[in-house]
Amino acid sequence: MTQQQRTALVTGGNRGLGEAIARALHDAGHAVIVAHTPGNRTVAGWIEAQARQGYSFAAYGVDVSDYESAQQMARNVRADGRQVDILVNNAGITRDATLRKLEKAGWDAVLRTNLDSTFNVTKPFIDAMLQRGWGRIVNISSINGSKGQFGQTNYSASKAGVHGFTMALAQETARKGVTVNTVAPGYLDTEMVAAVPAETRQRIVDAIPVGRLGKPAEVAALVAFIASDAAAFMTGSKVSMNGGQHMA
Ligand code: CAA
Known about the structure:
Elements: E1 7-11, H1 16-27, E2 31-36, H2 43-52, E3 57-61, H3 67-79, E4 86-89, H4 104-132, E5 135-140, H5 143-147, H6 153-173, E6 178-185, H7 191-194, H8 198-206, H9 216-226, E7 238-241
Helix pairs in contact: 1-9, 3-4, 4-6
Bound molecules: acetoacetyl-coenzyme A.
């Protein structure tokens, strides 16, 4: 597959699925910017460790749940002479609880971080993509945005909302060379899934037809394809990768 080198920005790109996506885009020959939580003290060490493995990343702090913070991050990126051609809205959190126990703060944090963030972070980059006539936006949803999940009214709502955003924006940008797609991973071998109580997690894994958790690199390879020139005809899609746990 021949393709031009672009610049990609991955939110939450320093851990879990985001880290795998950052590495896959780097492997595909792109320059990669990793956006991480502001003041994150682990990032410098992480960048050094990645560099020792041959991966060079630029890094910017941003609170994706905050509109002004995202604007400022975009200004910082531009001030450093970087343009963003590929945006992966990956940053996300869980605050699992049944609705009866879920506090307003747990609803707000998840909706703001997982859903408002797609608006906050896409907004400052979309105009330039449209002007250049090329762009790729990949929004990370979840199997639980498609099927719902006990204990995740907040997360499921946010992840279903992500695909609504994708479908609407895809229509607005289709004529201008900018594709917008959703990737909906199932349960992956990440810290987020490791945080699910062991017994519950085992029950979930037992229900995955492939019989194991997914590897972040497996989902990252899909994101790299969607970000490539080869995927120009693909827009407004939701692509699932969940080991057969939810087939729709
Ligand atoms: N369906 C129906 N009933 C269920 C159930 C289910 N899936 N799970 C639990 N219950 C029942 C229990 O049997 C229990 O019933 P009784 O009161 O009659 O005994 C009742 O619901 C309460 O269950 P819990 O004890 O589990 O309640 P809790 O308040 O202690 O915990 C919870 C609730 C925190 C949501 C816990 O169930 C949990 O963590 N579940 C996992 C949620 C999950 O899958 N999160 C995914 C995180 S990873 C991620 O989000 C990434 C991604 O995109 C995939």
